[in-house]
Amino acid sequence: MATISAESSLDKDTTNNLAPSTAMFQATLQGLTVYFQLIRLRNSCFLWIGDSARRMDALSVALPNPFDNKAPLVTAITDRRTNDAQPVRDEGQQIAAKLSRKLGAQVFVTYNVAEASEESDLLTAIEAHLFSLIKNGVAFTL
Asked: What does the pLDDT profile of the chain (142 residues) look like in tens digits?
């Protein structure tokens, strides 16, 4: 079950369309509390996803591809994880690509959730939660 914290302002309407706005929320997904911090920017957003450790290990960015709208351009900007901690796939890049494709905007994502096991569907649950927010009218960009 997902919960949104009291200090969150996850609304569609913003009073000043040029000023960045932020939202913080959390969701309990597969028994783990996952925290989200969203910074809405003009035609862009920055999304921090993490657990109670509150760290920032890797940062990825995706932006629309002018030649192929189904395949956004994606790259890792920084990655402070050790080689042993790096998964086969980069979750931040995966989420950034999907959000960029959905929003048609540049998306920065830092994914900092330690999963209990590789068989966990936590990443899928996080993606589903984010897309349900978008479907319910939460603005991710200005």
From this structure: 555 443 444 544 444 567 899 999 999 999 999 999 999 999 999 999 999 999 998 899 999 999 998 899 999 998 876 665 555 458 999 999 999 999 999 999 999 998 756 667 899 999 999 999 999 999 999 8
**Residue 6: what pLDDT?**
35
- Taken in order 111, 115, 121, 125, is the CA torsion positive or negative? negative
Identify the three-state secondary structure at position 138.
Answer: coil
Residue carrying the six token digits 């900007």? 77
DSSP state, 85?
Answer: G
Q: Where are the alpha helices (DSSP H) in 1-140?
A: 91-103, 122-135
Rounded CA separation 91/49 (Å): 10
Token output for 2:
């997902």
SS (H, E, C) 2-23: EECCCCCCCCCCCCCCCCCEEE
Give dist(CA 82, CA 57) in Å, integer.
9
Distance CA 97, CA 106 (A): 9
d(CA 36, CA 16): 23
